[in-house]
């Protein structure tokens, strides 16, 4: 239990230190470099060797790491663990300052599909990236920002002015989701206040600031929960839990399985993945092709390797909610600490099928790893993930799986402590095969 608990604590620490998608990738980079992975320049020719470990970034929000074996067998293909680095959030708009009734608020826009009510009346802060001038107009300098000492809050309207709030309240995104950052007084200049604050904190000339990508995030830390600490609660379990377990899986795996192992964390899953750094792009296919070519193989070899390849698409699943059991399937529902869920949809909202599920079951056979199956209630549409998109671009076998959680897309989610460890063990065993 101590090993399982410590892994959960390490995972939550990774999440706590990753307040934006850009920090996720930077922290993943640090973890990889600490374990011997070398960065490749996406704009340069690669000299890849067998028996080595590498990683490459894209647009500061997508990262791919891979290992090459000491001896490559093209018949064993490439084994991919895919996840996504983004989570539902609230982003800050340009020219964000709004002054109302002596209060300075920031104009915002919703990213993805968060449960908005969970963002009210709690300490939030601001994080993301800042773009400033450099010598090359096409390559502005990128700085990562975490204004953790500045607390902002999105306040609810008191029940006295909204008596029906507990009967359901439709949130006006443009009107209500503006966090208060300061009170206006004689010395405060509201115009461009946020950039002036950032300029002062980072000691950057405000004239050199070109733009930003900033978002709100909760200041509350992740923690173990329950009498036996066999559960945990944290922000962004969907899907940083999968990012961390996949990274640790490839880090802990051996490098001697005669195949190429790949971890990838895509951005923009929460908004459909149809971006240059999303799963519904040619990014992964192009990177894999570059790897194969850099090892001295050709296009036909690449297609042959793909034909023997496989992908685990890791994204959070659903625990059957005890208050809403009617929303879940009558025979295929998930419980906490009963294993990682294999996600199945005959309409291919998940990429799993009988073949790929059989492969996964065989990989973990005789291991101390639990699996369970999730299928949506037939009256519910359910969500989707990166699996079908990536598999269709690569034309490879794939299975969707993930740790089942409660409160998906809330500002805080929860899951079983053991299930987090099971997913890491699956990733490690998969890469070792």
Structure summary:
With 433 residues, the chain is of the alpha/beta class.
Give the topology, please.
Blueprint: H1 2-16, H2 21-34, E1 38-39, E2 53-58, E3 62-67, E4 78-84, E5 89-100, E6 103-111, E7 124-132, E8 141-146, H3 173-176, E9 180-183, H4 193-202, E10 209-218, E11 223-225, E12 231-234, H5 237-252, E13 260-266, H6 283-294, H7 299-307, E14 310-314, E15 317-318, E16 340-344, H8 354-363, E17 371-375, H9 387-394, E18 397-402, E19 404-406, E20 413-416, H10 417-432
Parallel strand pairs: 1-2, 4-13, 4-14, 14-18, 15-19, 16-17
Antiparallel strand pairs: 2-3, 3-13, 5-6, 6-9, 7-8, 7-10, 11-12, 12-20, 16-18, 19-20
Describe the 3D structure.
- It is a single chain.
- The protein has 433 residues and is of the alpha/beta class.
- It folds into 2 domains: 1-87 and 235-432, Aminopeptidase, CATH 3.40.630.10; 89-218, Aminopeptidase i, Domain 2, CATH 2.30.250.
- Helix content is 26%, strand content 27%.
- It is built from 10 helices and 20 strands.
- The chain has helices at residues 2-16, 21-34, 173-176, 193-202, 237-252, 283-294, 299-307, 354-363, 387-394, 417-432; strands at 38-39, 53-58, 62-67, 78-84, 89-100, 103-111, 124-132, 141-146, 180-183, 209-218, 223-225, 231-234, 260-266, 310-314, 317-318, 340-344, 371-375, 397-402, 404-406, 413-416.
- Strands 1-2-3-13-4-14-18-16-17 form a 9-stranded mixed sheet, sandwiched between helices.
- The longest helix is centred in the middle third of the chain and has 16 residues, at 237-252.
- The radius of gyration is 23 Å and the shape is globular.
- The model has no long low-confidence stretch (mean pLDDT 95).
